[in-house]
Amino acid sequence: MESGNFYKESENPWQELGGGMRRQITGYNADIMMVKVFFEKDALGAAHSHPHSQVSYIVDGVFEVTVGGKTQTLSHGDTFYAPGDAVHSVLCIEQGTIIDVFSPVREDFLATLKK
């Protein structure tokens, strides 16, 4: 299970997630996955956890990010790390995009591509 070696945004569909969010899966194998997530202003990535380690890079916009009960406001160039099973959430203050990297692959995300 793995993506192709190259990713072109124009050739990959966005997945509508509802609530002002959509994502593109940009590359993966069994060990790692990169996903681009677009947020409209006021969109909420509700508090959740998963067994995957996650590192996220703020491409643009402003976000209020909570990880493990601690909250910070992050913007372009900032990152956050959510260890496996840590409860985390993201509230979009100004429209923007986040790049998420997961280890291992989010098989639940791949399953949504097949629907």
Describe it for me?
With about 120 residues, the protein is mostly beta strands. The chain has one domain: Jelly Rolls, CATH 2.60.120.10. The chain contains 1 helix and 8 strands. Strands 1, 2, 3, 4, 5, 6, 7 and 8 form an 8-stranded antiparallel sheet that branches. A hairpin with a 2-residue loop joins strand 1 and strand 2. The model has no long low-confidence stretch (mean pLDDT about 95).
Write the layout of secondary structure elements.
Blueprint: E1 15-18, E2 21-28, E3 33-39, E4 44-48, E5 53-67, E6 70-75, E7 79-82, E8 88-103, H1 107-113
Antiparallel strand pairs: 1-2, 2-3, 3-8, 4-8, 5-6, 5-7, 5-8
SSE series: EEEEEEEEH
Which oligomeric form is depicted? Answer: single chain
Q: What do we call the CATH topology?
A: Jelly Rolls
CATH superfamily placement: Jelly Rolls
> Radius of gyration from the CA trace?
14 Å
Per CATH, the architecture is Sandwich
Distance between the termini: 17 Å
Short descriptors:
mainly beta; single chain; 115 residues; Jelly Rolls; 6% helix
Quick synopsis:
The chain has 115 residues and is mostly beta strands. Helix content is 6%, strand content 57%. It has one helix at residues 107-113; strands spanning 15-18, 21-28, 33-39, 44-48, 53-67, 70-75, 79-82, 88-103.
